[in-house]
Structure formats: C-alpha cells, structure tokens
C-alpha cells in the first residue's frame, strides 16, 4: 500500500477531524496515481448540492493513454456517506473551516482512497511555534540517542 502525503497540510492547517473517502476516477487517472504522478498544491474539497467535490487536485496525464487521456485538474467527486457530508458542510459553513486532502493511497482491494480533513488555517506565529516545538523534540531525541555528547 503506497501512501502519498500532502506534507504542507499539517504545516499550514490545524487538523480538526479526518474522513476517508473514495474518489471517482477514470482509467488513465488511476494509472497515473499508481505511478505517483500527482500534486496536492492548491487542492481543496467543496460541498456542492449535497455532494463533496475535490477541486484543483492535479493528476498528470498518463503518457500511454493517447486520446483517451483526462483533464489534469478536473473536479472529482468524493464518495462519502450523506451524514458525513452534512457534518462537514455544517463545520465549514458555521465555523469557517476548510476541507483539505491529507493523503491518497490504494488499499488492499485496489481501490483509491483519499483522506480529507476538516481544518482551520494557522496564523504565522502558530507556524513558528510549531517549528520551534519540532526543533526542540528533534534535539531531545538526539540527546537521548547519543548520551556521550
């Protein structure tokens, strides 16, 4: 199971809640995902007409697909339960949160799954505090693993 992560998501957002969603794809898109030819930059999810859509998620065209190729940034439908969609829509509308993709993977049955999160954007000082905490943890781990220093 190969997992491709959105590394910028945890740096720029505080994660409130995670959901696992299926994603509606065409044949050349799944082949590109298996090759790892994707880009999370500027991608987000939106609830529209009681359906959840993934916007600006770039899946590169598969080179061997000829004229059957797909549009790289087309909106893709996310497969979620209605109660999950309603819960996400309420948080986004009332609390000013956003839906962002965290990672994408192919499970044991060969299905492509996407983890999306209800998240709130971090301020600049929050990002700086997170980096300082990360540095402190790294120093602490280094000191514990190398006691003779």
List keywords for this structure.
Small Protein B, Chain: A; 7-stranded antiparallel sheet; alpha+beta
Main sheet: which strands, in order across?
1-8-9-2-7-5-4
Quickly give the CATH architecture: Beta Barrel
Total strand count, please? 9
Number of helices in the DSSP assignment: 4
The topology string of helices and strands comes to EHEHEEEEEHEEH
What is the gyration radius calculated from CA atoms?
18 Å
Query: What is the number of independent domains?
Result: 1
> Helix amount, in percent?
25-40%
Shape: globular
CATH superfamily: Small protein B
Backbone structural class: alpha+beta
CATH topology term: Small Protein B, Chain: A
Mean pLDDT: 88
Largest sheet: 7 strands, antiparallel
Distance between the termini: 39 Å
Task: Name the CATH class.
Answer: Mainly Beta
Q: Which regions contain 5 or more consecutive residues with pLDDT less than 50? A: none
The percent range for strand residues is: 25-35%
